[in-house]
Amino acid sequence: MKTIQFNFNHPVKGNAVLSPVNCSGSPCLRMKVESSKDHLLEIPVGDCDEGKWVLTLDWEHDGRIFSHRENFEVTTKRKKRL
């Protein structure tokens, strides 16, 4: 499974939104996310079509609200012919 991974120094529970860069409509994929016991957060991107995307991650910790935005690209690897 393709994922984007983040390592935090605290537990994370929040929302992730995955949108194609050229999308002017509503977000494509929206999901609730929660880090594992070792504070690793894995966001699945296997349902994203090939192309450029934007991830927006929002969470709350110790009464403070945090947000992270990151661009990423989904590509398909093709086998080389000999």
Tell me briefly what this model is:
With 82 residues, the chain is mainly β. It has strands spanning 3-7, 13-20, 29-34, 40-44, 51-61, 64-74. A 4-stranded antiparallel beta sheet has the order 3-2-5-6, with no helix packed on it. Strands 1-4 form a two-stranded antiparallel sheet.
**Count of DSSP H/I helices:** 0
Major β-sheet profile? 4 strands, antiparallel
Helix-strand pattern: EEEEEE
The main sheet orders its strands as 3-2-5-6
Number of domains: 1
Q: Which CATH architecture would you pick?
A: Sandwich
Task: Write the CATH fold name.
Answer: Immunoglobulin-like
User: What multimeric state do the chains show?
Assistant: single chain
Fraction in helix: under 10%
Strand content: over 45%
Mean pLDDT rating: 89
Sum up the structure in keywords:
0% helix, mainly beta, 6 strands, Immunoglobulin-like, 82 residues, two-stranded antiparallel sheet, four-stranded antiparallel sheet
Can you tell me about this structure?
- By secondary structure, the protein is an all-beta fold.
- The chain has a single domain (3-74), classed as Immunoglobulin-like.
- 0% of the residues lie in helices and 56% in strands.
- It has no helices and six strands.
- It has strands at 3-7, 13-20, 29-34, 40-44, 51-61, 64-74.
- The strands form two sheets. It has a four-stranded antiparallel beta sheet with strand order 3-2-5-6, with no helix packed on it. Strands 1-4 form a two-stranded antiparallel ribbon.
- Strand 2 (13-20) and strand 3 (29-34) form a beta hairpin.
- The radius of gyration is 15 Å and the shape is globular.
- The mean pLDDT is 89.
